[in-house]
Amino acid sequence: MHVDARTSENNTLIEGDICIVGAGAAGITLALQFLNTRVKVILLEGGGFEYEPAMQDLYRGKNAGLPYYSLESSRLHYFGGTTGHWAGYCSEYDEIDFTKRDWVPDSGWPLSRTDLDPYYQKASDILELQTSMPDAGTMKSSLPFDTNVLRNKMWYFSPPVRFGKKYRHAIVNAENIILYTYANVTNIVANDTVSSVTELTVKNLAGKEHRVRAKKFVLACCAIQNARLLLASNGQSKKGLGNDYDLVGRHFMEHLEMNAADLFLPRPLSLDLYRLQFFYTKSRAELALTEIRQRELQVLNGTVALDPVEVKEEKGGTGENAGGGDTRQDPAASLKGWEEAEKYYESGKYLKENFNRTRQFMFFARMEQSPNPSSRIILDTERDALGMPRVVLDWKLTSLEKRSYRKLIETIGVACGITGTGRVRLHEWLHDENDVSWPEHLAGGWHHMGTTRMHVNNMAGVVNENCKVHGIDNLYIAGSSCFPTAGSANPTYTIVAMTLRLADHLKL
Fold this sequence. Notes:
It is a single chain. The chain is α/β, with parallel strands linked by helices. The chain has a single domain (about 1-505), classed as FAD/NAD(P)-binding domain (3-Layer(bba) Sandwich). It contains 15 helices and 18 strands. It has helices spanning about 25-30, 55, 95-100, 115-125, 135-140, 165, 170, 225-230, 270-275, 290-295, 310, 330-345, 350-355, 400-420, 490-505; strands spanning about 1-5, 15-20, 40-45, 60-65, 90, 150-155, 175-180, 185-190, 195-205, 210-220, 255-270, 285-290, 300-310, 360-365, 375-385, 390-395, 425, 475. The strands form three sheets. Strands 1, 2, 3, 7, 8, 9, 10 and 18 form an eight-stranded mixed β-sheet that branches. A seven-stranded antiparallel β-sheet has the order 5-6-12-13-14-11-17. It is globular and about 70 Å long. The chain starts with a strand and ends with a helix. Residues about 310-330 and about 350-355 have low confidence and may be disordered.
């Protein structure tokens, strides 16, 4: 069932068993797990079914730290959320991502990779992944290297699934799920002891205000908005809900994604295993350090994709500048760019270009960010059109990220030299091993993580191992804001897997 909250009578009381705030990948996945059950689900989406500038403006904020994208460009505020411009990259987090690493402060999850394995399998269906390995012929194109040092990290590609389109019919036509669009949560109200949530305040730009009551509440907005809502709900708890130890909004993490080096081969090769691409093929490999070598070097987890230089200039925009607009500042340009990219790959033109042999490849490296309490979001004094405080992002990195980048490329370079595969040339920003500064073209993957991190101890985390906010018995958080560490893989696959695990817990 669908209700436009702008058309409801003012101050309507909405009631259900579970209330989910946010209809992106996490919120829709969670709602679907209760489809056709006796559980009455209230699914709240702040926007409508399409992109609207006025709704997008509610996500506008400021950057106070390292240069970053405009905040309203990096998330989409309508049904389906950021899956509207998601590229479809999927890979499981590695075992080492879940473990405590002595050289990575605040690392370690209260879960293991084994705990998520069955949920990854189910998430594959939701994301329409084919997770089988490439055929033997393609595997033969793998670069030769010492498997104690380097490994092939496999990636799988969703079509990509646009949750707002694929799952809209199922949600809208469900008898036990009521989707409210234009229902922006602006406050969380708790009981007198702040041990349980009693209701939510919902507002929209039409001037309507409503109340929502449920037995259990789940925040499934995004890493910035989940923290923003907890911090802004400070009427009963001065620091905000779940923030007794000043952890909400801290440990904001991104994946650093930049061109880092060039590989020159003695003869032209196609290296098909590393060149399989989204929108056309179902999987591809990226180079990564083994867990053994990460421990020896004491570096973060990262991967390197190989982009053929000749093709790279021809294949058209598929990233920040796709569509001819500046997606750092203009979310509409981002959407247009991805629509054009999808049409390009579906045309088959890329297939003709992609597998030509070449002697030069660009190393596009993705690196995890270490958890850093100084990297955070805070509330601004400026308020949006609904009266909510806007956010300020203070993005900070450490010397560990820069050193890890260099060691990753260095190790691959040495491996290529030993085997006679080719020679690797570092880009200038990595030349000086003592330089811990970042170049002007510093870029992230639009992968917001942390801010409501998971830990068994309420003095070290906002939520517990079941994603329940410490000290509040009926408030849960879904999504990458719960991630204690970032790993090297894009977060969507793990977001869906973690949400499926949360659904099982809520059913108990």
